Amino acid sequence: MNIIELQDVHVTFHERHKTVEAVRGVSLKIEQGEIFGIVGFSGAGKSTLVRTINLLERPTQGRVLIDGKDITAATGDELRKLRRNIGFVFQSFNLIDNITVGANIAFALKAGGVDKAAWHDRTVELLKLVGLDSKIDSYPSSLSGGQKQRVAIARALANNPQILLCDEATSALDLETTEEILALLKRINAEIGITIVFITHQLDVAKQIFDHVAVMEDGQIVEQGETFDVFSAPKHPTTKSLVDRYLGIAIPPQLVPSLPAGTIVELRYRGDGALEPLISDVTRQYGVSINVLHGDVEYFGPKPIGTLIVLVDGPAETLAAALNTLKTHVYSYRELDRKQLAQPARGDGQQGEE
Question: How much is the pTM?
């Protein structure tokens, strides 16, 4: 069942004598209880799009449906009720510094119309959920970044929302703390069934928790689907660039001149397939040598995407056939140019392709 549906949503800003189309004709459906990701480079329109879901940004054109109901024109009490049902977690935490952690959560409970007699018990319950019940009387200034974001998540859940929006919620955190916050969100999603919409430019986030993902570029959704499918076989140039930046591996340029003769190839495989049997078979069948120069495997959920850079050499009459067999048994095959490999890697993390 779709809990969120966007239909041909546009958001246009007018700045002095300039018109900016931040979101252009976006349509997507998000199922109840899933973790849905929106990824893209800076300026793609991700934050503007996610803010249309709770009408912090009202669409210039198109419709926003929550639980099948068109809320695009909601105002007054209807809008306030809608926003109580949608929690929001910001990159910068947005805690009130001069009141305690408990008071920050009580503030959200008051805004949500919860009876004052229930504030304390609900605050303790929420802080236990995020592992910070001992910090109820602490002030935000005494907390680490990860603890502040845990409080922000607890506050966002104060009024039992069906939907939690996360706008770059881990971008200000270090790697270890990011993983802790992602594990917390995944646990909360599993325990209470809340739908999470998470925007990020970090594929590390995407691979760990997203069920489905949409890729944005220039205000549009250019690709969407199951996370593993989108990133293991990207079709749009933007998705390919994101994947290459994340999965791309490189040979240190200073080592290239000392490499023996042969063809340098980048191979990428997906899923349960492995390259070791393929390399052994090709070596034996065609009488070529295949040396692994570099390799890496990344897991998107339980499924791997592997990348190898290999050096293939052998008799001219069998080398072409060996390379063709490799090419037909992997989902991505690139022959790399030695001269370009000897230069520093480009900003997208790739090395030179012939």
Answer: 0.86
| Plot region of 94 (φ>0 → left; ψ -120 to 50 → alpha; else → beta) | left
Handedness of CA 256, 262, 267, 273 (dihedral sign): negative
pLDDT per residue as tens digits for the range 9-24: 999 998 888 999 999 9
Q: How far is CA 112 from CA 50, 78, 116, 304, in A?
A: 21, 13, 11, 43
Radius of gyration of the chain (CA): 25
Check if CATH label 3.20.20.70 holds for domain 2-245: no
H or E stretch covering 275? helix 275-286
Determine contact, residues 164/154, Cβ cutoff 8 Å: no
What is the DSSP secondary-structure string of 222-262? EEEEEHHHHHHS--SHHHHHHHHHHH-----GGGGGGSPSS
Tokens coding 318: 């069998």
- For the chain, list the strands marked E by DSSP: 2-15, 18-31, 35-39, 61-66, 69-70, 86-89, 163-167, 195-200, 212-217, 220-226, 263-270, 289-300, 303-313, 332-336
Classified as helix, coil or strand, 149 is helix
Domain boundaries in the chain?
2-245, 249-341
